[in-house]
Amino acid sequence: MLQPAAHALLQARDEVEASMHNFPDELLWTRPGGAASVGFHLQHLAGILDRLFTYARGEVLNASQLAYLKSEGSASVPAQTSRDLAEAFYRQLELSLDELRSINEAILTEPRVVGRRRPTTRGAGAFRPRYWVFCFTPPNTRNDTSDSFW
């Protein structure tokens, strides 16, 4: 049941590896056309995986996670080079894969709260890649009135 989520994580790793190969550090924090920087995206990938699995365990974010969230997009996070940021993402991805391997599938349909506003979702939905796309697509570009993510 969790194989699609694991596959999405592995695909993300492959895409980051391909995109970050020989990426120049001087471009890490540039914002082309006002878009978010590559540095932000690398920080966000690591952070969102950590937060997603925290919520999936039924936990709330701790002070360290909230501080990391606030620092996403800032060059002040200790990892400064593109390689450092990519490696931080790879480490978090491996932790996420390890956690996926250990999840008892019998609990996947149990409701969980997600985020600081605490809306409820069913556990399995949080692990479906299409759900992730819905969650992280800007609200003005998705159909928020739909009852189905699938």
Structure report:
With 150 residues, the chain is mostly helical. The chain has one domain: Four Helix Bundle (Hemerythrin (Met), subunit A) (Up-down Bundle), CATH 1.20.120. Helix content is 52%, strand content 4%. It is built from six helices and two strands, in the order ααααββαα. It has a two-stranded antiparallel ribbon. Helix 1 runs antiparallel to helix 4 and helix 2 packs parallel to helix 4. The two termini are 15 Å apart.
What is the first-to-last residue Cα distance? 15 Å
Large-scale geometry = globular
| Uncertain residue segments | 128-150
CATH topology: Four Helix Bundle (Hemerythrin (Met), subunit A)
Helix proportion? 40-55%
**Overall tally of structural domains:** 1
Give the SSE layout.
Elements: H1 3-20, H2 38-56, H3 63-71, H4 82-102, E1 111-113, E2 120-122, H5 123-126, H6 129-135
Antiparallel strand pairs: 1-2
Helix pairs in contact: 1-4, 2-4
What tags apply to this protein structure?
150 residues; mainly alpha; Four Helix Bundle (Hemerythrin (Met), subunit A); disordered C terminus
Short description:
The protein has 150 residues and is mainly alpha-helical. It has helices at 3-20, 38-56, 63-71, 82-102, 123-126, 129-135, and strands at 111-113, 120-122.
